[in-house]
């Protein structure tokens, strides 16, 4: 067992090669045209009042936009990019902790979101109705997914980070193309609190009974009897938890730690986040 831990520790250290993290005072995006700016939250567009720091410039050239702020961006607030149907991708820096409700609601052309290592909360309806968002890699620092956070998206597969402790009602509901979900928790006590119908009407509207749940080896005794997880039509214990280590390659973070419980964590922004049990 000690040999296994030592090998995992060495593997982790090899992955943590220091690189430059995207500056915390800017957002970069791609779009079919420059995003319109408006002070009225009821209107579609980019809303400067939705951020925790002041927007000082907004450049757009050859399909690429850069938004600069006068300080560290920690919150992309409610309706920040509400119904920006020209938005196709966005890079969110690791300084961001919270993505507010309806922040990217009905961004119908949004295809790619790059989450920085640091996001703790994705609030209700944050990415609701992003029908062209077919794939996301949720950050391992994520704790909370709000109600309908990714409802009505085009997701086809999903891996939920180990640090997640709360998943809201309909969080992935009505994602009709979602047929594969990976859950990483290896202990019943670590399963997140679930709202109602988290996976309602996924998989061509048939629900989880028409989808596959991938779980860690030898954990059927947990998921086969757990609320909502037991509803999946196929449950395969074919997930290798150590594969989560590759998802953090290239991030500049404090070296990982193996605590006395044998679990592997990273430290980011003063907190420890589990990446392997």
Structure description:
With 277 residues, this protein is mainly beta. Helices cover 6% and strands 27% of the residues. The chain has two helices and 18 strands. It has helices spanning 2-15, 220-223; strands at 26-31, 55-61, 64-69, 75-76, 87-92, 98-99, 112-115, 121-122, 144-145, 157-160, 166-167, 180-183, 193-194, 212-216, 234-239, 254-258, 264-268, 271-276. A hairpin with a 5-residue loop joins β16 and β17 (264-268).
Please state how the strands of the largest beta sheet are arranged side by side: 4-6-8-9-11-13
Average pLDDT across residues?
Answer: 88
Q: Report the structural category.
A: mainly beta
Helix content: under 10%
Q: Which oligomeric form is depicted?
A: single chain
